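Researcher: Here's the sequence for the chain we discussed earlier.
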Amino acid sequence: MISKKEKPRDIKERTFAFALEIIKFAQSIDFRNEPLRTLGRQLLRSGTSIGANVEEAQAGQSRADFSSKYAIALKESREAIYWLRLLKEAGISGYAEWEALIQEADEIARIIGAIIVNTKNNRHHR
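Model: Thanks. This is the structure I predict for it:
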């Protein structure tokens, strides 16, 4: 997992790095186990789509489009947190980075939330 000193400051890079960590984690899941396979796929979808939506927001055609993509990224980050917590509590063994992944997802969600708030506030001040 990315250490605090190594965390990219740019949200696009940070969500990309998070997606890579989610992919690495998903590779550790026993996909022969049906419930774990289902949960792992859900996490893989939400954890990798955060960055995709952030990337799409950068090319937004309007402030509303930008905000909409960030709102989707926020929902996906909250969903990723849910799946991570669920998988952790379900007792997936052999994975030591639970807290780091959950913390990173939470920090990303907070940053994205702040971007959304700032975008809305800037719209009202013009």
